[in-house]
Amino acid sequence: xxxxxxxxxxxSVTAAKGRGAEARGGRHEQRQPPAKGVPFxxxxxxxxxxxxxxxxxxxxxAAAVRVVKPRTGEKPxxxxxxxxxxxxxxxxxxxxxxxxEKLEQYGPYRVVRPEAQALWPKSLPASVWEKAxxxxxxxxxxxxxxxxxxxxxxxxxxxxxxxxxxxFLGRFTSFRHVGVFxxxxxxxxxxxxxxxxxxxxxxxLNLFGYTGVASxxxxxxxxxxxxxxxxxxxxxxxxxxxxxxxAEKLPIRWICDDAMKFIQREERRGSRYDIILxxxxxxxxxxxxxxxxxxxxxxxxxxxxxEILSPEARGLVLxxxxxxxxxxxxxxxxxxxxRGRGGRVESGELIIREGGLDGKEPxxxxxxxxxxxWVPE
Length: 377
Known about the structure:
The protein is built from ten helices and 17 strands. It is α/β, with parallel strands linked by helices. InterPro entries: Glyco_hydro_b, SAM-dependent_MTases_sf.
């Protein structure tokens, strides 16, 4: 076997095992669904419940302790639908999409990944797609394991990226993600403007903070940031990004904890935040096995977030990925949560606009996620 071929084969295996294992924390690990059991037929045996069953039961009871009571007062004003668009920017743009895939430019690299929302045919010829530097193969489910194929030169595990003047590491993970969700640029730009124009240092809470890009952007703009994620690996990646961004002296608290437990403690302590970003997964587990189910626990989470918003808060932002729901569902939940607080609730979708090879040829819009955002008027 030629040396180049041997390195290519080994690199594919490494991307699936080593690289993916290291980068599986944060959003990746939390989003992986629980294993499906085999349907039981007949009368079950009289065996004591397992430790896992007892743990799930106790966690469910603990989650039910907070009863979300109906709020009183007027609902906030509303803006629906609001479409927040990410267009080509320095460091990233969507080149093309179609036939269940997307072709993106991340810094120096062109990357092909599965995209179920891309129902239309591709615009650019196959010769353009074939020149990609990295192609994700294998399971195409959101949470599926897979491998990276490198058609040309074998690439390393990480590479330097820069968005909104913030440096961080891109990484090829076995869950097809690369360490940043560029559609969030719309929220991050809004947050940066809020922090930069405030007459005091704002306190920002980033829940389910993943690799810390949003936290670094907020801190560089002048905020005091608390970053919370249940994965030690995600926190480690975020700290790497902090070093790369030369932001070691910025006021960021990196906290590995269950998001619900953390905000409940903050409520008891009387802590307050001016901006809260929350990007919860459909399903997740905390560092001690705590179970998170979006539809079960989201109302209590938002209710608690309201309680820890400061009197002069600038916003509460919720993003929801890969759920079978309309943005109206989270929109109405946000309005009910913020009853009597005034302001406005803006809800809709985050999209990324195709930009062609040079990023300057606006094309189709690719929907990525739902969002709801409360802001004071």
